[in-house]
Amino acid sequence: MPLKIAVIGTGPSGMYVAEGVKKKLPDTEIDLIDRLPTPFGLVRYGVAPDHQGTKKVINLYEKFLAQDGIRLVGNIEVGKDVSVAELRDAYDAVVIATGARKDKKLGIPGEELEGVIGSSDFVNWYNSHPDYSDLSPISSDSKAAVVIGNGNVAIDVARILVKSAEEMADSDLAEHSRKAIDAASIMNVTIAGRRGPAEASFTPPELRELGKLESALPNVTGAEVPSELPLHIDASQPEGRIKTKILDILRSFNDLEKTTQEKNITLQFLASPTAFLGQDKVTAVQFERMEMNEEGRPVGTQELFEIPADLVVTAIGYQSVPIPNVPFDEKLGRFPNIDGHIEDNLYVVGWGKRGPSGTIPTNRPDSFAVSRLIMENITADDNKEGSNALDKLLAERNCRPTDLSDWKTIDAKEHENGVRQKMSSIEEMLTAL
Length: 433
Ligand code: NAP
Known about the structure:
With 433 residues, this protein is of the alpha/beta class. Helix content is 31%, strand content 19%. Residues 106, 148-154, 156, 193-195, 201, 203, 206, 272, 315-317, 356-359 line the site of NADP nicotinamide-adenine-dinucleotide phosphate (NAP).
């Protein structure tokens, strides 16, 4: 009797937990369920549209989905079309792999002003996510943007805002975003971090990219780039080696010479946002200048300063969205778990398990560890009907699940003109089938 598993979410962590089980127990039957008609979650809607190399991982995921015993069940919202309790009754184990798609809030005055948007909304908008395609975060008179946060998402956002149409030609940037960004011609983007250069969360390849843009030149302000790591970072540890590279790259930005670049990306360190200023629409961000203490924590100096901005993107991290009747830790913004185990036959992987950190490859060993736990804890139960039970429920409810061949149809249509042009509404996707 094979194990029957339902995975909710078809992004990297969901794919990898299914792969982990399938590698050890090839007979296992796994349904990968997604709210959208299309699979691949963060790879499709989170990875930057100009990082097409990263998106090639989809080819591996497609091969995996084509294996015997694996099914894509798209266009099904767990919590609405089918409940977690029903899935737990039908399958031996249920794994939540829904990621973290809600923006954390700064909680400072003016956050509700027009022109202030969280990076999750903004990234989904430029990636054609059906839920976000109607947003219009950039107005045609936008000239200056501030991105808050010193992580890779902040870099993605800044890069997409300044790259020229030619630099984006091979990307799958949403058509509505391409038009809005071109119409606005944003000349200055500031990436603001509350700590110093050595404490930034960027990774070296992503930061290095900012020095290779045809349209914008990066510069560093607010703090000297130190020649050595501060004492609170151990240079011999992997993290210390990454930080050393970050400092080298930041220093190298000073040596860059202006050629074609008309725009600026300013890396503003030691700046903690205190308010967004403006009447109805944001006009500036107010910051407090910070200094670093010996433990690597930022301490306020009470000196305030402003940076003009008609667009502000807060890229300060994400949180998961609760699912009805699944325990949820509101404070941490994720599902409480021990090594991926929530309770009984319910598990969690990825950002819903450990919080919003790590790149796509980080998820593979993490999800594999949860797959081992599932195989240790769970034995196949003859009474669990798996896919048959789900299909019956969905048929009763007149749901129209999508499968791998539907995805291939959508995929082919999106590639009709060569470079992918994503469909930006669920209706458009379903009509295409
Ligand atoms: P992140 O790396 O955790 O960065 C979040 C940033 O927000 C940090 O600089 C943090 O500063 C700052 N922040 C948090 N709360 C703040 C506050 N109240 N005020 C001011 N700043 C605040 O998160 P992320 O950029 O969202 O990225 C999430 C994960 O996805 C990361 O692991 C990232 O590497 C990965 N990712 C990878 C790629 C890629 O590989 N190309 C692309 C995008 C994302 P403190 O450090 O001071 O807290």
